[in-house]
Specification:
five-stranded mixed β-sheet, alpha/beta, about 220 residues, about 25% strand, 9 strands, globular
Amino acid sequence: MTDTTSLTKKLTEYFNDTISGYHVDREQITLVASPPNLLKICQALRDEEDFLFSQLMDLCGVDYSAYGQVDWATRKTTATGYSRGRNQSQTEMDADKRFAVVYHLLSIKHNHRLRVRCYLSDENPLIPSVTEIWSSANWYEREAFDMFGILFEGHPDLRRLLTDYGFIGHPFRKDFPLEGKVEVRYDPEQKRVVYQPVTITNRVLVPRVIRDDNRYIEDEELPDA
């Protein structure tokens, strides 16, 4: 029995009625938790002898609203030398699972890594803060709040971390415009920096690549030997 198989068995047996699901991909175990059970699960993952995930290595937000969709045909643009990686299957957004918070945990004693994912609704992305369990979550949660607008209940100081105090919106949300909502400039008359509506127009540019190398010509286009 491999370490991953053994750990998966222990996790599923211990959290049988607590987790919403799990999966293993490339030796990476992912537990799916619901917000009401999150703190109970995280506390056990940190303190139970079989787990001892003493370190929160990373915490991030995810927006699944456009998951599996593209702005242009991937196969066609790949043939011209430009592509965008994506999942092959198109997916419909689940309003109850638009956002997610993902936790990456490390057990130093057992040399195990674990991912915990918690889905959140589009309307009210609220989740308990894990700062009392792992203090490193403090700035991670502030970043997720700033970039995605995810609220962490019980956080000691939930303020923006990367954007300005007067910033409008959350820039990592898929519906946030690429050019932003406002821009800043120096007003010589007022002698200060002011905000104003954005004046640039968003454009999506696809570079054109011309290749004469035979490696990029379809087999049927090659001349007969």
